[in-house]
Amino acid sequence: MAIINTPLAAGKITFKNRLIYPPITIAKASADGEVTDDSLAYYEEKMHGGSFSLAIVEHCYVTQEGKASNGQVSIADDAKIQGLAKLARVIKGAGTKAVVQINHAGSCTTAEVTGMTLKGASPVQNPRQGGVPEEMTKTEIRGVVEAFRAAAERGKKAGFDGVEIHSAHSYLLNQFYSPLTNLRNDEYGGKLENRLKIHLEVIEAVRKAVGKDYPIFLRLGACDHMPGGNTIEDAVKAAKILEDAGIDILDISGGMCGYVNPESSEPGYFGEESKAVKAAVNIPVITTGGVKAPEDVEALLQAGAGDLVGVGRTVMQDSAWAGRTIGFYRD
Fold first, then answer.
1. How far apart are CA 251 and CA 55, in angstroms?
2. Is the separation of the CB atoms in 108 and 170 below 8 Å?
């Protein structure tokens, strides 16, 4: 029996099937990060037919300092709630649950984008950007934690069904997690538990803001796929810590390598990491990466690579793909 069309109850959230639309940057926001009509039209087209159980909205910046690129959506102030609410209604109106991803780019941006000085875990070059950031002070770290808290609260007010904390693709939280970009000598650096300290503080703050029954996802850049970077063993250990901290669902992707795996181009190319994490935790795991055919989704589910499969870039090119895939297994 095919798994793809079976529901999944995950405590605080229920999925009608195992297919999700992952956070994919579309860069259609206004210059100040407002959701635009083009943004709404894009999601309306991709969600048409309600074939996805869940859509995770592309990363939204929690502060101007953390803006990753032009055209990115902002969740950095209360004035953005109204536009975000329109986006949540578009997705949910298609019969799909909606989660908003919140992010701080850290050193994975430019001063031209933010108008501000680059900040990061340590003053070392980001593998995905050319600039070297200033090391964040503890006061600045507390400010980041507060920014994530406030952003999550705005996401809930906007009507989203959950919030996803972004710690992948070489952005700020990932910069603290990775030994390649975290060379700190204080309690935020060194061993893995210390490199995850900011995550635990963000999770605690977000949980207080949204309440005990509101789903919190976390996208983990599990492995860096670079010498000296995080490994699968690190990812498994981190996943257990994040589960214990109260994360409801783990979304597995790449770390300093970004959203591609330099060592694999197979469908579900982060499947090795997500399978190891899934075996170690008791919460649902999302796997992604290069899925192109309907058979790819079911094969990953059958192999235990994840409980849910995200398909984004294929759907960017073919809006009808999800409907055909769900129909293929239903028929």
1. 12
2. yes
- The residues annotated as belonging to the active site are 171
Taking the model in full, what pTM does it have?
A: 0.98
Contact 243, 256 (CB under 8 A): no
**Strand 19-21, strand 308-310: pairing:** parallel
**Which residues, at least 6 apart from 308, have a Cβ–Cβ distance to it below 8 Å?**
8, 15, 18, 19, 20, 53, 54, 249, 284, 285, 286, 287
Express each pLDDT in 197-215 by its tens digit. 999 999 999 999 999 999 9
Kindly report the number of other CB atoms within 10 A of residue 69's CB atom: 16
Domain count, the chain: 1
Using the 8-state DSSP alphabet, how is residue 222 labeled?
E
Model pLDDT for residues 228-278, shown as the tens digit of each residue: 999 999 999 999 999 999 999 999 999 999 999 888 888 999 999 999 999
CATH classification of the domain holding 128: 3.20.20.70
Q: Which domain holds residue 128?
A: 8-330
Q: Round to whole Å and give the CA distance between 144 and 202.
A: 8
Domain assignment of residue 3, yes or no? no
Q: Which two tokens stand for residue 214?
A: 């509101």
